[in-house]
Amino acid sequence: MQEQHIASAFDRDLETIQARIMKMGGLVEVSIMDAARSLETRDEELAEQVRANDKAIDALEEMINEEAARVIAMRAPTASDLRLILSVTKISGNLERIGDLSKNLAKRTGVLAQMPPVGDSPAAMRRMAREVERMLKDALDAYIQRDVELAADVIGRDHEVDQMYNTLFRELLTFMMEDARNITPCMHLHFIAKNIERMGDHVTSIAEQVIYLVTGERPEDERPKADVTSVSL
Amino acid sequence: MNDMSTIERGAKLSETKVSARGVNVHYGDTHAIKDVNVDISNNNVTAFIGPSGCGKSTFLRCLNRMNDTIDICRVDGAIQLDGQDIYDKRVDPVQLRARVGMVFQKPNPFPKSIYDNVAYGPKIHGLAKSKSDMDDIVERALRRGAIWDEVKDRLHSTGTGLSGGQQQRLCIARAVATEPEVLLMDEPCSALDPIATAQVEELIDELRENFTVVIVTHSMQQAARVSQKTAFFHLGELVEFGETGQIFTKPEDPRTESYITGRIG
């Protein structure tokens, strides 16, 4: 890491904010895994817990944004300090969104638990959620270690999540065409799959912030849309 | 005219006004400036930043040969103003300083009236043909110094009776009265309060329409606010020179990064 600031309180401010990001990241990782598990095991109690825990994630985001505003106002950060402050506000926003998507997943779990199960897609979704959670863990590790290579690796892996989503999309479509009574649960399952796919996009955005923080460059978006399943008739 | 946002207020693409090549300055045995190369462009504000003793003021003073007045000071290398070597023997330093004006850290009005402070330069350089001509020159300079409205009713009271911020704007008006092409400012706001500082900064931004401005400042925020190009000096070297926005968001040299983020003094 870099040498310390002459004003040691500045270092403490930046460390505090980053510690909160890591704490928020930890809560979001737990939230993703619990939500996916509650879906697979039809555990309504766990789903309820996920929904309740989202409040703590939201509170951390608010705290991080307030502290970032204070640092901007009082320390006028420049260069890598400025990029750090800009990145924490964006990352906290991404984490908050992932938390919301996870909460929404848990909400749908409550609804799905009242219906007969359709196929084994919850297990596939749990695998997808596990991959997103691993990506998030790596993105946060890359953030703390300022590891551009690991961040680039995370960005590359989002492609796999997209493919998992496309597979699920086709599968759910088949169930719905087979039996109209499957439409309600499948619509919920589809939203869940889409939510997990969106989580992957937010994780990618976090990894991009790592690259920006370290290099000052925004990575170019060169990922081609490989599969057009979800946008074709 | 100057109400552009910071984002739009990028460096103008313009010609080089002052060009320095291989400039070295020695004070006796002390090597104060080490092989500095820089091109200062027309109609832009260029800020020199760096810790105390880094050579930024010394280099600024090379640009209008103020260092000539210091016996032990030796300047080597080439400095050109519009392609002409300013250290050429045929160049009269007094004439040069009419083209390259200077404003100092501490406001230093002459102990004369406000009018005479401004009229002094034009008078010795014979720029006015008549009394009314001189009145016009004085008014224009005071307007450019953004102080006309405050002093127009008391032009014949003494300049030293003004407030610090007013005195500094008077000094800027005095410096622009001889129609210089380049204006050198050595920490022009360090003795001023925030309001007077803001007024002088606004003035600097207006002045760049007509002048090439070079400012030495200890305030990084001031450099960021007023300049389009920033040069970072450290231990007599020009470490990095670039567009101000780039220097403050993505400096290339780790020494620049350390200085502007407050890691070295």
Describe the protein's architecture and organization.
The complex is a heterodimer of chains A (233) and B (265). Chain A is mainly alpha-helical and 233 residues long. Chain A has 6 helices and no strands. The N and C termini of chain A lie far apart (51 Å). The mean pLDDT of chain A is 92. Chain B is globular, with a radius of gyration of 18 Å. Chain B is built from 10 helices and 10 strands. The model of chain B has no long low-confidence stretch (mean pLDDT 91). Chain B has helices spanning 56-62, 93-99, 114-124, 131-144, 148-151, 164-177, 194-207, 220-226, 244-249, 254-260; strands at 16-27, 30-41, 45-49, 73-81, 84-85, 100-103, 182-186, 212-216, 229-234, 237-243. Chain B has a single domain, classed as P-loop containing nucleotide triphosphate hydrolases (Rossmann fold). Chains A and B meet through helix 3 of A and helix 8 and helix 10 of B.
Most extensive contact: A-B, 16 and 16 residues
Number of helices of chain B: 10
Average pLDDT rating of chain B: 91
Count of helix runs of chain A = 6
Helicity level of chain A:
over 70%
Termini separation of chain A comes to 51 Å
What is the CATH T-level topology of chain B?
Rossmann fold
% residues in beta strands of chain A: under 5%
Helicity level of chain B: 25-40%
Reported CATH architecture of chain B: 3-Layer(aba) Sandwich
